[in-house]
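Put briefly, the fold is written as integer tokens. One such record reads:
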Amino acid sequence: QHNQLLNMIDPMANLTSQPGGPQPGGAPAQPGQEETMEVFDFHAQQNNMQKMESIRSFMGIITGCCAGILGLTDWQGLIFFVAMYLLVSVCLLGKIGGMGKLEEYRKGVSASGFVLEALQNCFMSYMLFWTLFYGLVYLF
């Protein structure tokens, strides 16, 4: 049995693999050839996803309350939700550092996926609080 060692390099530490050291696949390294691998922290990505989900859920609740209190109905309420959802998504992208940093912050997510990933959950929260506050203010 031949044990294979996988040399994982942290790109933030400015380290490189040693020439002649173990390489993926068990092949010895050629002199002058360096092999690096990206270190991925799954727990950090899950934490990022939870924080963004919390921000978007909170946005749905707050904007639903505002739409109900303002008395928005029909298309006005829907347009208000879409505008606020896009505003929050743009603010999140700005906080991340723009489109270039999105891949570092959320592995494997495109820009459209980032914008649309929590749309349904956020809209459900929005609808609940929109109808609740509209009923409390204008019907009772």
Remarks:
- Confidence is low (pLDDT under 50) at residues 1-10, 20-26.
- The radius of gyration is 24 Å.
- Helices lie at 42-70, 74-96, 99-105, 111-116, 119-139.
- The chain has five helices and no strands.
